[in-house]
Q: What sequence folds into this?
């Protein structure tokens, strides 16, 4: 496996997992006065869609 593909897969995986536990959104939630559960559904939907895109991209894009 090419080193570039390994690095890209690692980076995508790290960013993808941050959608499950969106700790990056805590400051945003404080500013707009939302609860955590009000955005988890949206991040779960984005998690599934980007998971499919990442899987297809890493499978079919040649390196």
A:
């Amino acid at each position: 496996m090419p080193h570039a593909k390994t690095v890209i897969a690692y980076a995508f995986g790290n960013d993808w997992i941050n959608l499950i536990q969106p700790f990056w959104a805590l400051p945003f939630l404080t500013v707009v006065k939302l609860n955590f559960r009000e955005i988890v559904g949206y991040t779960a939907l984005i998690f599934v869609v980007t998971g499919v895109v990442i899987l297809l991209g890493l499978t079919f894009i040649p390196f």
Residues 37-60 form the longest helix (24 residues). The helical segments are 3-17, 26-32, 37-60. The CA atoms of residues 6 and 58 lie 10 Å apart.
